[in-house]
Amino acid sequence: MAADPAWIELTASVAELQPMQAKDGSVTAEDAERAAALVRQVASCVARLAGHFPHDSAYLEAVQVDLERWAAQGVGVPDFLDSLVAFAPASQRVDGLRHLVVFPMVTQNGSPDRHLEAVIVEVIWPEFVRELEAGPYTNRLFVPIRFVAFTAGYDTNSAVLFPETVAMRAIPAFTWGAIFADREAARFRAVVSAAAETTGLALPPDAARLLADQSLAEETFVLWDLIHDRTHMRGDLPFDPFMIKQRMPYFLYSLEELRCDLTAFKESVALEQAGEPHGRLVQYAVLFDRIFRFPLTGSRVRNYDGLGGQLLFAWLHQRGVLHWTDNRLAIDWEGVAPAVLALAEEVEDLYWRSIDRPKIAHWLAAYALVSGVLTPHPASTWAQGPQALPLTGPLKGLTDAVLPDEFPLSMFYEALERRISDVVASTAGITG
To answer: What pLDDT is stored for residue 73 in this prediction?
Structure first.
């Protein structure tokens, strides 16, 4: 499909259109005529490609209508609500099934601008995941996918395809969320392999096999993502613990993402005990991705995923499970699961107690948990305690008082970054 002339023409049209688009997806009057021609060209290409995707006929017809209307209206702010509602990949979770997806959208960890993007994806739905999702890990919205081809917004670190990123006039009830397991697996394998070699970490045979096998890593990430994704908004939670626009101090987002990963780790321990071979592999994936890749990926500005990885590393080090001696990293493999589960219990207790706490008290308790493990920046206002914070003013004052890099990288990570930063950077745009 990536070699189909219609796809090649479509991607060329999108590449010419994107530089004309403003942040909201619109095009200025001086470019409107050419932009409209390009949008109509994309619609024509979609029509020519539609025969490859008979299961998506309703969506592909709707997206052509949205493209034609956008062009007819002068390529202003796009609105693809109708075609978004028509797209329902979660109702067709069949291993190997492909979809052509065309939307004006932002790409998380990619382009922050709402540009027209196109991607051909393939569903990853192995039998063991189908059985688990039909049983104890129900998640009807979850769609794991791999790349077949993509436009520039996905030649980045973006590994998700979420409906909420699409340009639309109103917000419908979302019925799916897709994650690129092949990209997650490929960058995990590249970065963790480099980190293990650099630190001299001796890997157990099954962990080494995970790093060597892309297909096995993809299956492992699908299981991890299935459990992680369903953990959001489940359990003993404060109201609305995860708000993507970051109206809270970023360390709270770090704890929410970490909570979901620790839950995936805990469930994978139970799965291993029940005889599921991927259970042990998910534990390795959570551990290695969190402590090696997350802290060194992206900028240090409110990097909540990076902070969660730093927290896990320091927690394990301070409990004698992880050792850095003579410039070599060693892990007490038998001690990993109990230590990680203890951290999960700490985070779960924080959430449970927050139900009875005022919001500011919850924020202070969350900061106490993180700063009890990681050392804040010496210039931190939060580290000086409640007496230094504007507790009686708007909550924005508390959020603004958090430094962009409130918890800087430790000396271990500074040294590791110097050694493998080029490998981390090279994984942008990677696929399986």
So the answer is: 96
